Amino acid sequence: MSRKDDLINQIVERDRLLQKHKLKKARQGDAAHSSLDIEIEDSEAKLEELQAELKELGEAEDIPVLVTAPSDRERVLRWAKDGRKDSLYGINVSGEKLPSVDLSGADMRAANLTKTELRWSNLKQTDLRTAYLREANLCRTSLTEAKLIGADLSNANLSKANLVGADLSDAVLKGANLSGANLSGARCAQDTTWPEGFDFAAAGIILEDSE
């Protein structure tokens, strides 16, 4: 492997690590430990160092150089279009517009989908464990049998979404819009957080035995 290829791989991995740390900090809010800020700063500094070295290498060789990883939006669209089965773990498409996208069965654990436009999308059996979906637009989206364990869906728009059989154990749905959503057979845990006044039992949701 050439030094250039090695640097590109390091940049991609370092960027993923950085996004993971930022997502963790966003989840923890004011409770985040100061060591997390140090990890973020270290990752940003290392990323800049790698990009600078790659740029210098490209100028020395007089060849085009990729100084940043492919955008996460491009990765998602490529996955949906080509049916690629690579992991989308920790991907960051916060605020992106991705309506009617087919991501059924994708591995999107710990993904950052804050304020992402996903209405009419297919997320059937998608693994969204610990994903960050605050204020995401999931109107009429299929989340049938999706894994939403520990996911943050605060203030998300889930109106008329299909969550039949979805696993909502320990998920946070505070302020979420569940009007017209189909939650029949979905599962939850004692620590699942619901919108104020929401009756999960009446909605056909099954409370899993914590034991």
Describe the overall structure.
The protein has 3 helices and 2 strands; from the N terminus they run H-H-H-E-E. The chain has 211 residues and is mainly alpha-helical. It has 2 domains: 3-61; 72-211, E3 ubiquitin-protein ligase SopA (Pectate Lyase C-like, 3 Solenoid). The protein has a two-stranded parallel ribbon with strand order 1-2. Residues 61-68 have low confidence and may be disordered.
CATH architectural designation of the largest domain? 3 Solenoid
Distance between the amino and carboxyl termini: 50 Å
Q: How much of the sequence is in beta strands? A: under 5%
Strand order of the largest sheet: 1-2
* Rg (CA only): 19 Å
CATH topology of the largest domain: Pectate Lyase C-like
Q: Biggest β-sheet, characterized?
A: 2 strands, parallel
Provide the CATH top-level class of the largest domain. Answer: Mainly Beta
Which range best describes the helical content: under 10%, 10-25%, 25-40%, 40-55%, 55-70% or over 70%?
A: 25-40%
The figure for the number of domains is: 2
**Low-confidence runs:** 61-68
CATH superfamily of the largest domain: E3 ubiquitin-protein ligase SopA
Structural class by sheet pairing and helices: mainly alpha
Reading the helices and strands in chain order gives: HHHEE
Q: Count of DSSP E strands?
A: 2
Task: Characterize the quaternary organization of these chains.
Answer: single chain
Give the overall shape. globular
Average predicted confidence as pLDDT: 85
**Tally the helices: what do you get?**
3
Task: Compile the SSE list and pairings.
Layout: H1 3-28, H2 34-61, H3 72-82, E1 187-188, E2 206-207
